[in-house]
Amino acid sequence: MNPIILVHGGAWDIPDDLVESHLKGVTEAITRGKKALPHSALDAVEDAITCLEDDPTFDAGTGSFLNRDGMVELDAVITEGNSLRAGAVGAVKRIKNPIRAARIVMEHCDTVFLTGEGAERFAAHQGVPLCDNRDLVIEREIKRWEGLARQNKPAEDFFKHGTVGAVAVDKEGTLVAGTSTGGTPCKQPGRIGDSPILGAGTYATDTCAVSCTGWGEAIMKAGMAKTIADFVDRGLKAQEAVKKSVEILRDRFSGYGGAIVVTREGDYGSAYNTPRMARAVYAESMKKPEASI
Ligand code: GLY
Fold it and tell me: Is 3.60.20.30 the CATH number for 4-292?
């Protein structure tokens, strides 16, 4: 087995002045994730996503878009394809690293998906410290939120950074996918996007692991992550599978975004139908991680 990890930091119209911070962010995340990679794809994905959640460059964890009430509201999932285990949290407001909470749900809860106050209570009971929502809010997002209310433009026009995710295969061939997001700018409170929904924004089987990014409503309708996995199972190369799904997202669902995929054999790919997608890859056969946007 050739262990591999891929991360993404969102597929959107990332402006020129944010290119450097995005490349730095995905490089740091993959550097963090690869430390655990040879032995544990699960730790690698969790660590990489935690790093992205802590970086306000991205729409996940601290610095996420604000909802209509001016609050951060977060969704995250982690899933291990070989064992078909999964855990997710949705619409949580007091968890700094929802990907860690998602893993706790996967490992300690008898259900797969917890939302809101119930998810927070479960995480706290398992030892996750709860934060104040204001700890997750940054000045840049308050300004964006005020602009959105004032200018009466579609929320898409304010989408300049995005959801984060990671996929990995370790030396045992264990496949893991995870995704974390603050959702869309000025979203309806309580709205949950594609990211934490298995088969929509995230999916893993014993043949591949997938994480998507983009406008969640279209990605959910497309069942995009499952579509990519099905294409891989039907024999498509990883790059063909992800490219075809991104085309379907645009042509059939009028959606935009992107995705990353890795297979058990170590084949991998990424594609997007937006101007840019921040991403990085590291395989044991490489000297160092490669980031691109
Ligand atoms: N893809 C992230 C979201 O729409 O919530």
Answer: yes
Q: Where would I find the H helices in 111-237?
A: 116-125, 139-151, 216-222, 224-233
99 Cβ neighbours under 8 A, 6+ residues apart: 46, 49, 50, 53, 76, 78, 178, 180
Q: Give the CA distances from residue 291 to residues 30, 85, 179, in Å, rounded to whole numbers and listed in that order.
A: 9, 29, 18
DSSP 6-59: EEEEEEE---GGGHHHHHHHHHHHHHHHHHHTTT-HHHHHHHHHHHHHH-TTSS
Looking up tokens 């990211």 gives 195
What is the domain partition of the chain in residue ranges? 4-292
End-to-end CA distance of the chain: 28
What is the rounded CA–CA span in Å between residue 7 and residue 260?
8
CB 31 within 8 A of CB 281: no
Spatial CA neighbour of 79 closest among 213, 180, 222? 180
- In angstroms, rounded to a whole number, what is the distance separating the alpha carbons of residues 253 and 257? 11
Please give the pLDDT value at position 147: 86
**Positions in the chain short of pLDDT 50:** none
Is the pTM higher than 0.85? yes
* Residue 18 tokens, joined: 């944010």
Query: Is 61 a pocket residue for ligand 1 (Cβ < 6 Å)?
Result: no
Q: Residue 111, CB half-sphere, CA atoms under 13 Å: how many?
A: 7
Q: Ligand 1 centroid vs 217 CA: distance in angstroms?
A: 7
Contact status, residue 72 vs residue 133, Cβ threshold 8 Å: yes
Neighbours of 64 (CB within 10 A): 28
Q: Is the CB of 213 under 6 A from ligand 1?
A: yes
* 2 Cα: distance to centroid of ligand 1 (angstroms): 31
